Amino acid sequence: MFHLRLLVPPALTAAVCQALAENPGVAHVVLVRGAAVRPAGDLVEADVVREVTDELVDELLGLGLDAGAVTGQDLALARSEQARVAERATPGESADSVVWQQVQERADDESVPSGTFLAFLSIAVLLAAIGVVLDSPITIVGAMVVGPEFGPLAAISIGLVLRRWALVRRAALTLVLGFPAAVAVTALASWLATGVHLIAPVDLDISHQTDFIYRIGPFSFIVALLAGAAGMLSMTTGKSAALVGVFISVTTVPAAGYVAVGSVLHHWGPVGGAALQLAINLVGIVAAAVATLLVVRWVDVRRHRRLQERAVRR
Description:
It is a single chain. The protein is an alpha+beta fold. It has two domains: 2-97, ACT domain (Alpha-Beta Plaits); 103-300. It has 13 helices and four strands. The chain has a four-stranded antiparallel sheet. Helix 7 crosses helix 13, helix 10 (218-237) packs antiparallel against helix 11 (242-249) and helix 10 packs parallel to helix 13. The protein is elongated. The two termini are 23 Å apart. The relative contact order is 0.12. Keywords: Membrane, Signal, Transmembrane, Transmembrane helix. InterPro entries: DUF389. The chain crosses the membrane at residues 116-134, 140-162, 174-200, 212-233, 240-261, 273-296. This is DUF389 domain-containing protein. Residues 1-21 form the signal peptide.
């Protein structure tokens, strides 16, 4: 279930409470008059079945609630007879439902080219470069987990499906700034390391366990597609644990790390392969994420139609 927290101007309280009472997907409602300080008004809280959250929020905003405030979060526990009644009254499964308002909010957050994003990406690419030099798959996996690049890729996909072009441009800018900056930082660190004899060209000659980074094959694109699909399902359904597997699956950060250290050590052939690997993964992830989001949206639209038809029959 989903918990809604509403700060309601007093003039709208009656209409908001009526909308909540008439929606069969609303399980619990709490009203505390005069509790809201900024903006001033009444506090209304409701536990709502995920399947009806989007249309309910749209309805509340249509009443003028944007003059107050609407916040929400997933509920980890909801045990009551009212909750069971609300679940039975709505078609579909909560685990399959999507709160599109939440998805868009997360996409907006992930698309910003922040200093934190650049720092995490730079650290991840540095770790990947060290893994390449040490021929250490474990270090490469660690770099994959640290990398934050899926957020902007998901934001691009969401922007394309929802036709939010400003979101697409902002997320693309984050990647365009992030990867070159991270590669530049790693290349500089690699150049400094050669000066103190920490690394040498021969280190890449014996890197056999990490040659998957620059060896391109059919599975390079297939893995990117599967990772993009899994990542988008994770974002839309709130199953965040699956994102760790997505991070480990794709070869974006390792490829960027190889491009940086390989360029400094003049391994131009593998550098070209790593750059192509990076491009293949980026394109594959976005393509699969867009396709997955379109399917999820189609299913969600059909479910909402069934819900509306059931409401009309009542």
